[in-house]
Amino acid sequence: MSENVICGIKNLLHARGSTINHLHIGWFGGEPMMAYSVVKDIMDYVNHGMPHPDNFYLTSDMTANGWLLSASKFSDLMAMDVESF
Question: CA–CA separation, 69 vs 58, rounded Å?
Answer without folding.
Answer: 22
